[in-house]
Amino acid sequence: MYSHALVEKRAKGPIVVTASVVGATGYTGAVLTDILSSHPDVRLQALTSKSYAGDRVCDVFPHLRVSGVYTQYSAEAVGGSDVAFVCYPHAESHAVVAQLLDEGCRVIDLSADFRLKDPEAYALWYGFDHPRKDLVREAVFGLPEKYRAQLPGARLVANPGCYPTGAILAVLPVASDIDASGLVIDSKSGVSGAGRNPSAKTHFCAVEGDFRAYNEVGHRHTSEMIQEVSGAAGHAVTISFTPHLLPVDRGILTTMYFRPLRGLVGDQAWTQKYRDFYAGEPFVEVCDAVPALSEVAYTNYCRLAVREDPAAGLVKVFSVIDNLVKGASGQAVQNMNCMFGFPEDAGLQRKV
Amino acid sequence: MYSHALVEKRAKGPIVVTASVVGATGYTGAVLTDILSSHPDVRLQALTSKSYAGDRVCDVFPHLRVSGVYTQYSAEAVGGSDVAFVCYPHAESHAVVAQLLDEGCRVIDLSADFRLKDPEAYALWYGFDHPRKDLVREAVFGLPEKYRAQLPGARLVANPGCYPTGAILAVLPVASDIDASGLVIDSKSGVSGAGRNPSAKTHFCAVEGDFRAYNEVGHRHTSEMIQEVSGAAGHAVTISFTPHLLPVDRGILTTMYFRPLRGLVGDQAWTQKYRDFYAGEPFVEVCDAVPALSEVAYTNYCRLAVREDPAAGLVKVFSVIDNLVKGASGQAVQNMNCMFGFPEDAGLQRKV
Amino acid sequence: MYSHALVEKRAKGPIVVTASVVGATGYTGAVLTDILSSHPDVRLQALTSKSYAGDRVCDVFPHLRVSGVYTQYSAEAVGGSDVAFVCYPHAESHAVVAQLLDEGCRVIDLSADFRLKDPEAYALWYGFDHPRKDLVREAVFGLPEKYRAQLPGARLVANPGCYPTGAILAVLPVASDIDASGLVIDSKSGVSGAGRNPSAKTHFCAVEGDFRAYNEVGHRHTSEMIQEVSGAAGHAVTISFTPHLLPVDRGILTTMYFRPLRGLVGDQAWTQKYRDFYAGEPFVEVCDAVPALSEVAYTNYCRLAVREDPAAGLVKVFSVIDNLVKGASGQAVQNMNCMFGFPEDAGLQRKV
Amino acid sequence: MYSHALVEKRAKGPIVVTASVVGATGYTGAVLTDILSSHPDVRLQALTSKSYAGDRVCDVFPHLRVSGVYTQYSAEAVGGSDVAFVCYPHAESHAVVAQLLDEGCRVIDLSADFRLKDPEAYALWYGFDHPRKDLVREAVFGLPEKYRAQLPGARLVANPGCYPTGAILAVLPVASDIDASGLVIDSKSGVSGAGRNPSAKTHFCAVEGDFRAYNEVGHRHTSEMIQEVSGAAGHAVTISFTPHLLPVDRGILTTMYFRPLRGLVGDQAWTQKYRDFYAGEPFVEVCDAVPALSEVAYTNYCRLAVREDPAAGLVKVFSVIDNLVKGASGQAVQNMNCMFGFPEDAGLQRKV
Asked: How far is A332 from chain C (nearest CA, A)?
């Protein structure tokens, strides 16, 4: 168990941790601000922003109704928090993370900088030589459904990517059932997944009424999927992943196809297998009907359904999440709750 | 060659055929009305409608700017046309088609009633015993890219389904390259594919911001795909097809996955194979970049792109069409053009 | 003060009222179900539905995560509740309301059947002779910002219409400032305002990418606006109201124009006048910036901003609400909170 | 009549003018490219772009199917065209326009730089002192319905703004019927009106599901409306204009309110007045039903309808246009057709 000043606080009365958000004016930062501002066990400390330092939260995000002002990042100001959420882009995040850990602050990093367990993989998938291989090895992959036991003792948690979250949750119960042909993972994401920086690709007129695949081979999130699925299967699993851009704000629907190693068993048996696997999970719902984005939008839930295609000899698994909540900020808070011993759904019961 | 009164007309001057649309107030009927009303070689005769008989076209579809009034269907009134487009639902269409053929009218049927070549397959896929197995056998499957040669002599053309059009065009060049694991076909369609009848599933509030799979195993269009792909391959090809509902009006994007029988050859080789196969086709465009719905919306084009996924050993093919144009009414007119010897793109050069 | 069994309950321990929803499977019923199911002072009793009796809530509205089954309406079953929310169409609602009042149940009616204070006005605006003019006279118009004092003693509350809610809140602070030329009220509403019954007008393909006015003169909600604005002004105020249909799910933005009786005074003075008027109101926010739908969507807030147009000598007032929350079900719960002495924002602090 | 080399061409055979587009990679440039590339009387010469010089049209706008490559602007290259369309922002355009006129090229300017007839008005409305007041005075305001007679002799045409086009067409028939209280013009525009440059305001996630007013007092387009409406009325008309941003790609719907100077006359009389005024106009359609955006989207039509509001003593006029076609590029081509004596609808009969 992580030794933390919190233990001392705990002795003195009701536990409230201080939390800061670094890079708080992107979409994930805004959702974190929303959740944390009404989390019963948290007091918001610093919200940092390069572009909006000095501006009020309510002016940048009028829908939030959160008081407070954005500040410039400094290791001192943020490092005094019990926990920091870092929302910087990959390759920019690791330096800040290292600073904050040095300050004694626990860190949940929403970038990709600590998700891959093999430090050499960053050169291949992200194009940079990772300078902090020690921290890469230390980080816990923050998917509570798989790594819950490691979270209370974790100093650094690597929050999973949005696509990997929906895909890995769809695979875990059947990781050892996939035959050698591997997985086809066809995902469709809302536009908020592309971030808040305006670009030609996220212009309303480029998205509305339209639909397309992008990064259609070798999207970086494939590396997380391979790592976690292969880990769960106990051997390398081949994954062909294709992301598509939906004309919606929020949500990822993943349609996954695999050929079952031991043959077909019927929809009910597969569904029961998923239900057993996820029994007791607060945020995974295994359903009879195939799920729609609207069933999880603005929530931390992942919904799953399984179907056999008898004529083709395949199994199809459908998963939906909100990319900004279970796929990012909600899951980050879920990780925090596990790290600090709060109820796992604290702050996560309302829509954000 | 089909013997037709047109031959006599041809002798007398510029050829103009008379065309009628049966069931003209659905979405496919409206697009047909739009195309045919400005087709240089066509004069619109009857537009029939059960619900709107007596109403003016411009009142039912204010955007069309087509004069004329809807009438009740009668075999006599419609049968006097050179060609009739029948836009009735499956299992309702065949009786009208048979009547019109008896009247000496050539027919392009947009329902599923004559698409399957095996008359016994209707019981399995569509739940009815087909009463006109003779016409089932006579009908030409109206995909000009495959059956162009049979169209001039055809009395009855079965216009392909929207999903099959996009999927089959994506497969044809590689039908003999698919290994025994078969095809995964993951399609995403706009809402107009569900037809104009209002329902809980097509209510704006049920679709906007949402996305879901539906008929997720065994969708009826799978039968057409199996028939045509297996026919092209020369042996039975397994197909796992999954349709999804996009929050857009028009368009189908199909993402297709297969394991190549003879291994990987590189993106360029696959692309060239597609370019060679479709050389000279007026409505198939093989592209380097993966295509978006917006590139074909409101047009009769199909755009295709191919990608190898080397790590997974798979090939991905992307196709986009407008479900109401190349996937229905535009292709029906393309078939008519082939049947009557008009330029294949006559009437199909503008957006509808 | 309304004499109610609640008083006896109150003596025995923590107050929890039982609430039923009549017509619970429309959009307003679904939002009420969502709010009430997590309201700290409420226990849901009956949810009635003509079409879905016997179905589980979670099957009809998978996003709700509410247990329970819809039942057929009966006066006995529903009438035993402390309060009933009636979500029937106008002209159908009054009979049920009368029954439930007879059963001793307090009623919040979401239809128009008791909003107009003049019983003769129903013939003019709604085309029926109201059979319960006594109840029309008894009903309290459920706009807490205006009639809060009457709610604790009310047996029957007429929940305002969606357009009137946004418009009246925009007018109240300046009702006596409007010159003889009256008000121009130009409103734009999301599609959920048209209800859940599918129709040609709410088909996704008829709405997406489109925009239009409808009921462009004499929309029935005008009657509520005239009644309340004239009442606040102390004399008849002329109102020209035009509703439009936005391609969005939720929300109404109203742009209101008037010529100030006593001339221009500057943006700040108007804004301050609104702030003073609504000081302490839990759900009215007067802003400096003009508000967007997204700032109130899924909440019970109304946001307002005022602008002078000096060159034209007019004042513009902008108001936004969520038509299903502050414009219907949220306001209904706000009314209930006032009726029963609960905190006015109980159950209304999260998005629905 | 403008003396032009075209006259000499005309003598030699079928007339084809050469046309260039300066700033061809914004939305208006793309629509111009689309229209001109299939215009029967035009040959595209140069398409210039600062950002995309050297790129192929089909790579920047894959939906266009236009061959050709963007070039850097030079007065020589462009000036050799018979006509140039200038699509630069206001305050940047006038210098290029002056250069091209010097080269002997006729110019249709889509910026605001020559729309106001009073050269001093640019300081007030656009914040710069106009350096070419001579050209301001020479320019013809390119609304063919009002200034058709001046177009054949025009060297420089100032294409109207998108909001003014829809609004002025709605007012012209009744300009002398407006009482002293003036006009309320409440307009709602699609996002393409904000241009193709990505910004926080045009990000898909900032627009989808949302709606808001912007530039809510004193929008620059008000100046054009005042100029043209007052001109038509013969005296100054007060206008209060409010633009709003719709979550759609294309189209402007304007709802206009005025108090008729000589009282109410009935819907039919107003409609007939509009019909008489616009008799013979190829692109103005006066309708009985209030029009929707979808009826004019992607076309050069303006649709109008009029309604009296007897209770309020007001008249409401509804107009819809496509902001990029009749509101910009389509009208620019209509102007060109008038300038060069082509059929007024040449190139404008298909959707773009």
From this structure: 20
